[in-house]
Amino acid sequence: MSARTLQCSGLTRSFGEKLALAPLDLCIGPGGVTGLLGPNGSGKSTFMRCLLGLVRPDAGSVRVDGVPLKGDGVRIRKRATYIPGELHLYGEMRGAEHLRWLLRGRPRGALTRARELAERLELPLRRKVRGYSHGMKRQLLFAAALAPEVGVRILDEPTEGLDPTRRGQVLELLAADAQRGTTILLSSHHLGEVDRVCTRLLFLNQGRLIADETPARVQERATRLLQLTWQGSVPPGLKELPGVERLRIDGGRAALLLEEADPRPFLAALAAREEFPAPTGLEMGNLSLAELYRDLYGVEGV
Amino acid sequence: MNLRPTREQRGYAAAALLVFVVLEVMLALAIYWWPAFEENAAALAPIFGRIPVMLDQFQLIERAGVNAYVVGQHFFKGCNTLGVAAAVLLAMGAVAGEAQRGTLELWISRPLSRTRLYTERYLAGMAALWLPILASTATTNLLLRMVDDHLNLRMLMVCALHECLFLGVIYSFTFLFSALGDQPLRIAFVMLFFGIFEFAIYMVKTATHYSIFRTADIQTFVTMMRYGLEGGKTALLVALNLVPFFVGLVLFRRRVP
Hints:
The structure holds 2 protein chains of 2 kinds.
Chain A: E1 6-15, E2 18-28, E3 32-37, H1 44-52, E4 59-64, E5 67-68, H2 74-79, E6 80-83, H3 95-102, H4 109-120, H5 134-146, E7 152-155, H6 164-179, E8 183-188, E9 200-205, E10 208-213, H7 215-223, E11 225-229, E12 244-250, E13 253-258, H8 264-272, E14 281-284, H9 289-297
Parallel strand pairs in A: 3-8, 3-9, 6-7, 7-8
Antiparallel strand pairs in A: 1-2, 1-4, 4-5, 9-10, 11-13, 11-14, 12-13
Helix pairs in contact in A: 3-5, 4-5
Chain B: H1 7-32, H2 34-39, H3 41-49, H4 52-64, H5 66-92, H6 96-101, H7 104-108, H8 114-138, H9 140-144, H10 153-180, H11 184-202, H12 218-227, H13 231-253
């Protein structure tokens, strides 16, 4: 059953010499919120654009909500909504007029729902869009993307630039939409920003899928990650200490993936060995996306 | 069905109205001064005589009378100058303007086919270019009442159609470049420079036959007033309208936002 799903097989796209998407095979949905994470240039936006036919894949096939990608993808765009990552709107239009413009080609009820959503988000629809803040523009696009009754929503960084309150509101609306069975794919380059509503996390790097995880699994692994820093270099022999599953060393910093979430046995063993000087810094669990890529997935240079 | 015009449609309508008003004023003034022109033709001849090509046109007006004067003033002078500028200005930002302001992705990500978006915009601009020319031409006989004269309106409209096709070529090529580019001003400069260059070589006796304005000069329209559209020329102009349109469409459908 392919309704409300996003499927791609062997999806490839290059821009000149640069490989933007390595052959990608994925099936997302039906239902749920899937987070697409990756640093800038990892291929998130290209992937989303390929799904909608905005960028033509070099190879591979795409099927969204049961409809194969053909031509410019208009059949897919009728069955899915989209928020582009780049935030450029028509400043000369008023908010209400812009919503109408964004929803051209959608059933009439979508505009009514979009207006209701915009009012809920306290957007001044009578004001010209050029007077909107960055976050308000993002919310206007969000209202237009959430209003149509479709099976799939593809949202490129929908919470980027929103303050924590608005971000929470937007994520709540998305979670409620997903509860109704809609499949949502959203991207972000900040772990911890969107993953609380996600049921699945996909990690992209240089156009490749490097991990396909549940948020709970990522969290569980992150809690097992211990970061220690020393002045100067990391003393040798850490890997031999009990409970170390993986070790990465970067100058005076060591990232250790422990076998257990409890670091105390390892720390006790470290303290007991005289050849190891006391570390100057210790951190556990709190990871940036770059650290997660580097320390959990072994991807450098993110 | 929502019949309220969009901001874009209102923009095209305003441009069309502006072109119409300017063309109408130019035509009205030209017709108003026709008796004075006719009366002082002998005195004007030495002025035109300095540019051989213009002298040819002037002598043609002297021979053909109000017929050549009106088509010369309206099509060769009014429509060719204002029309070229309007064609370039209407088409230059059609797609390139969206790319420049960063709204291209938003424009094409709606559930509308690119063919539809491209064709709608092409036709809207073309209508804004053609309608003022056709409408102002249709008022010629009303204005000619000022000087108690009259022309064959049907043949005038044939001339207007030819002029529309001629300007449509400029518009279509500008639109094609807009479909490829992201710098509307650069496109406008290139096309306007081309237009001025073509008009300049039109004035040079040895190069005049290489100018595109040769296909829309007084001689062309005087002949057309008598014999109607020339099949070969018209077919060529239609082709030169359609080819850039379709080439642009194919490229636009593949364009990355």
